[in-house]
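Email to the structure team, subject: DNA-binding response regulator model.

Hi all, the expression group asked for a predicted structure before they design truncation constructs. Nothing fancy, just the tokens so they can compare against earlier work. One-line instruction: predict DNA-binding response regulator, return tokens.
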Amino acid sequence: MYRMMIVDDEAHIVEGLYEFFSKDQSLELDILKAHSAKEALDWLQEFRIDLVLSDISMPQMNGLDLVKEIEGNWPRCKVILLTGYTEFDYAQRAIRSQVIHDYLLKTEGMDQVKQTVKASLSRLTEELETSHQSVLFKEKMPKVLYDLQKTYLKRLLEPERGASRMMDAYFDALQLGFRADENVLVSLAMVEDWGKYVKEDRHLILYSIGKIAEELLGKRTVVKAAELNEDAIAILVQSTQTHAFGEKKRLLTYVHGTLESFQETCRSFLGLSVSVASLEHALPWAETAKGVNRLRKAILRGPAVGMEKWMVVSLVDIPAAIDEPDRKKAAVYVLDLLFQAILKPNRIEAEQHFQTLRGLYSSQGPTNSFDKMQILHALSNHLLFAIEMIHVKLDHLDDGDLRLLTKFDSGTNWTSLLTFFRGWINRLLDYREQETGETTEVSRQLDLIHHYIHNHLEDNLSLAILAGKVGLNPSYLSRWYKKNAGEALSDYINRVRISKAKELLVSSEMRVSDISSKLGFTDPHYFFRFFKKIEKCTPTEFRERSSLDTNKFSP
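Reply from the structure team: attached below.
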């Protein structure tokens, strides 16, 4: 799966192109939208981008300036520029760039745009195939040197060994290219399912996996893969431009995005499902063993065995002394983890997350009343959604307890409320554990995905963002969801948004434009067309002819 970004300062063009390409599932595209070059830069600094379809003339930063940024961040990316007749000189200059694949006049039809996009995707595939075939079949260093590198790096990553004062000498002698005084970014790749490969093949296949990682990342970094055991390799990366402005952030984005491509390559060329976990920042060589151990635990504690995980892992626990706004962010983050632990179910993890939540504040709770209400409402919403997901029978619930889940104010005692919520958490864990034999890992994972979607309808719900929230590779998530849910993930999101739109149109007096924003639509006109296409009437017409009975609008 490739990721395409559509860039234009005219919202109707962005939404029109997005709708056009989203309908064609044969292209298997993860599509991002940017309504300015600035927004496009934000995406470039967060996710790997394979193809950009961009207007050439935009305010503040034009398409050619954007191309320069693309070249620096994602040199394998292809760009298609949309131009007007008066911008022909711009287009001529653009052709000199190595990332430009083509340019199109805005007067050309959508079919021509589609053909150009397909040609760019084919070019990307051809380049990857040529590159990977070369790296797999062409040995570039003596086997003795490779074996020495492998042995030294493996020892370096062992907890009892660690870094030494002789590291620079070893790095030079073994031609590793690393610098001992610079931090290193550590990632872990673990084979989930060996499939057709027998045990005797594994060392050779791990070697191939490591070489693919080195080839993909080696364009801009110093990189080496080190075999840890018969199932996993560590991938060690340093920047070649350590002191350049913004290089630390750029390196993280580049490595994390490229390792996503690495997973897809292993799947396509080797037929292997490989999970990847990467640290969220580089660390000193003396701490690499600790980092590898943290990454291994993250993969093993992630979704079920066999699922292609992709996650960025923190080495730092929530500190005790942090500012009030940061505490609220930490609380919201911990609540998500707590909900996931309930659905797994994992009582130990749930208790750890609950204790973390309780430890963020004193017995009085947040000093800011608004923060206190936000956290309590978030906790209440998580538990109510868990009740729905776990299918707890209503006759097993006490009406008084249910009312207490939502009946509180800023003056309610914080400690008493947490004790009450803890009781509910344990009850839900009991229910979940009882049905574990009946509930599969698939349904638990679907519950997590649906929970996030329902609670973030006003946010960007791109495949890349959803995959990051559930710890899976984006292209794997797309295929896995369609196989297990029976529909595309984008179709489910559209159904939920339409359902919520109908509910708000009937049960509230919100303006249509406000409903549009609340459901994540950047252009009210696109929401209008989207709603009319599905419901065969405009939002206003639907509101006028609907009753206040909202029961039929449940997703």
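Residues 110-137 form the longest helix (28 residues). The CA atoms of residues 141 and 175 lie 10 Å apart. Ping us if the truncation boundaries need rechecking.
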